[in-house]
Design goal:
The chain is α+β, with helices and mostly antiparallel strands. The protein has helices at 64-76, 99-115, 121-136, 144-149, 185-190, 198-217, 220-226, 233-236, 243-252, 274-290, and strands spanning 4-14, 23-38, 44-50, 83-88, 152-157, 162-166, 173-179, 257-260, 267-271, 295-301, 308-309. It has 2 domains: 4-166 and 305-309, Ribosomal Protein S5, domain 2, CATH 3.30.230.10; 173-301, Alpha-Beta Plaits (2-Layer Sandwich), CATH 3.30.70.890. It has 10 helices and 11 strands. The two termini are 18 Å apart.
């Protein structure tokens, strides 16, 4: 087998309660890995997919990792270059943790590293977003940008991919709880109303602005007052069993805030230290154990690096 390179792209939490489709942050784990090497046949070929249980297509045009890499190769004029890709799925599908985004990021980043193009991560962002778009049909970067760039990312405008990494206060930690239930993105989107009242818009704008201010000033009390979703969470929370019980437990344990990760069913809490994050994970996992619902818990600082070469 020819030598190649391996890259890792992390899971991410999108929306972050106050920034629907415009805010997301990266986790240390889980994530996806992609190996890319020189091939024999013309063009990019997905040679192997592990961990996907047969759920991912080998067709480059239908696979987020393959498609993002192909868009980069088209940009470089290298579509005939013989390349072989292996995809190692190490995170759950349909979890609200940006699985398709991580694959798209890993695919384009791996090809970029192998070919040593000199392109920056910011220059790769559009190709990765185009890759994820084939999975959910939407052109937005709230999972892709943090998975690629790392950190907490604010998307001022998705169309132009005008994004900004925010300052991360020392000690800020996250805990993500993934109950093994199915919440389809299309169902999670379909319950949302098209219209938001002026009163709610003003309040949510205040929450978002104050949350960003709290990140730069390390003001955890302001962050706690700000990290409240009055628009999306009330419409989606009924899709996740025991959501309100889990939220009550998280806040009782000292969470800064608690809400839905992406479209769900995963939920997240931000905390001012990892001890509180672990305690929240342990106690909420007991709620789901008693309900006979399997769940995974991921405790992580904010991942500053994003996609990396392994």
């Amino acid at each position: 087998m020819k030598p190649g390179i391996k890259v890792f792209a992390p899971a991410s939490v999108a929306n972050v309660a106050v920034g629907f489709d415009i805010l997301g942050f990266a986790l240390e784990s889980p994530g996806d890995e992609v190996i890319i090497r020189e091939g024999k046949d013309k063009g990019l070929i997905i040679k192997e997919i592990r961990g996907a249980k047969g759920k991912l297509p080998y067709d480059v045009l239908k696979n987020t990792a393959g498609y993002s890499a192909l868009k980069l190769l088209e940009f470089l004029g290298e579509t005939d270059r013989p390349l072989e890709m292996e995809i190692h799925k190490k995170m759950p599908f349909g979890s609200g943790l940006g699985s398709s985004a991580a694959s798209a990021v890993a695919g384009v980043y791996a090809v970029n590293e192998l070919l040593q193009t000199g392109l920056t991560k910011m220059e790769l962002l559009r190709f990765a977003v185009e890759g994820e778009q084939i999975a959910d049909g939407a052109f937005h970067a709230d999972n892709v940008a943090p998975s690629l760039l790392g950190g907490m990312v604010l998307i001022r405008d998705n169309d132009t991919l005008d994004v900004k990494k925010l300052h991360i206060p020392h000690g800020l930690s996250a805990v993500v709880i993934y109950p093994h239930i199915l919440v389809l993105t299309r169902d999670s989107r379909s319950v949302l109303k098209d219209v938001v009242s002026l009163k709610d818009m003003i309040k949510q704008q205040g929450n978002l602005a104050s949350f960003i201010a709290s990140m730069y000033t390390s003001d955890f009390e302001l962050m706690k007052r700000s990290l409240q979703d009055i628009v999306i969470e009330p419409q989606r929370s009924h899709l996740i069993p025991h959501f309100h019980l889990a939220k009550e437990m998280a806040l009782k344990c000292g969470a800064i805030g608690f809400s839905i990760s992406g479209a769900g069913p995963s939920m997240f809490a931000l905390c001012d230290n990892s001890f509180i994050a672990r305690e929240i994970g342990d106690k909420i996992s007991l709620i789901y154990k008693e309900a006979k619902i399997e769940c995974n818990v991921f405790v992580s600082p904010i991942n500053h690096e994003g996609a990396v070469l392994l």
